[in-house]
Protein 1
Amino acid sequence: MKNLVYIFLFFSLSIVAQKSIEATFIKKTPFNEQTLIGIDNFGTLFYISNNTFYKKDKEKTITYSNIQLGPITSANAFNPLKINLFYRDFNTVVILDNRLAEIFKIDFNRIQPYKNVTYISLGNDNTLWIFNQDTQQLEVFDYKTKSTRATTLPIQSEILDITSNYNYCWLLTKDAVFLYNYFGSLILKIKNEGYTSIVESNDNLILQKENELYFLEKNSDKIQKIKTPKLLISQFFVTNETVYIYNDEYLHYYQLKTN
């Protein structure tokens, strides 16, 4: 009987061990800027430094700055033709094209009904996911028609982070991780076990807990640990299967093996 118990325990531990995902080191490059936003498939860097948004490729660097709106709270370059910058102090979003020219400016103070926005993320077509602090709801907001296409039910927990793609939005709160579709319907809810930041990649989700990363595969509720060396993680993001980890000195590149 004792042998059967040992066999069972060994089998259980083996299953747990198989749930981790390998991340193979590729290279690291010096990087010393305030906030890294992302890197596209061509190696173009998007980042914020001294309240200025930068787009830097192999040939040139272009910038956008709007000091009248205060500090940039967040930025998203998932769609390089519609880069969005959020200025929370002025309740305003600026949409830029690939030359960082301003193409839309959404001042939520002037929109009726008034929206007190604290988080935004990319949406499909001409929309943004916005979190309305007053109603405690996520909204799919059409910034061309200045109307809301969909709303979620109220969320009763403190918001920590948000990420999205054209079809889905993930919301991280102190209590749970929520996944919503484009119609505002809740698809998945998972208890937050200490995660503080999230990033989307091809409908999958990467989560950060202290200086470790975890992987939540599309259509799954099982979170798997990503094997990386002990490293300070100030920021991270994912492009396709490349994980970028910034530790305030270097940008580390890792190849993620999910299969």
Note: The chain has a mean pLDDT of 90.
Protein 2
Amino acid sequence: MELRHIRYFLAVAAERNISRAAERVGIGQPPLSLQIRDLEREVRARLFHRIPQGVELTAAGQAFYSLVQNIPDQVERAVHFAQRAQRGEVGALAVGYTGSSVLNPVFPAAIRSFRRAYPGVALTLQENQTAVLINGLLQSDLDVVFIRFAQTDTEGLRMRVLSEEPMLAALPARHPAAKSAKLNLADLRDEVFVMFSRDLNPSAFDAVIATCRKSGFEPTLGPSVPQFVSIVHLVAAEVGVSIVPAALQNLHIKGVVFRELQDVSLTSRLSLVWRRTDPSPFLKNFIACALA
């Protein structure tokens, strides 16, 4: 049974006349009668019987009509929906991000732009550590992620840098160096550094350690925490000092100050990462919004 058979059947049922139905669907009367007979053979039931004014539905025809009357409209909607999905206008997209990503204006701008342009796409947002987000991409649990200090050589993934910002020293407000507008990283050689575990973000961890070594000292490491945001709170609690992206200033946490480092140049890159082989139109549209 083909869709045209359903359309022909519905036209005859609506017009109750073969000639008018044939004119309605744009074919001749004999071919239409032949199509109806083919349909009846396939259904194995008489769908119409003749009356002086034309034709009317049999009991079997009424039963058949009750279930197929909406099929053409459903097919048309399905075609339209499929075309929109192909253009990336409807569907779902899973977006991951680190806690500090949301503090960079690029992140909310990308989310806002995509939601306005593609309201038919359901966004799932998941916050987690960098290592977990990368694994989520590789396992296809996530479609795209916002992370910092991303490695560009991760097999199977592509990366695009969205923003760069300086790394600043985060100090307890009562720290002696907090009185200076700027300081050298070497001035913190005797301090305890609050950082995240290397397992969670090896790139960021290694960058800070390497910068300390270039300044002539091996940093003393204090507690390991999962996110930059947690680091700032511990600095405010006078647990130690740290080096964090400038966007962390936007938290306005009482008890911590941020200072530029004069003797080193360390930046934090906010990057967008996705699977290299992902053909999703939703992903393509999201990337375009993030890069706009």
Note: The radius of gyration is 32 Å.
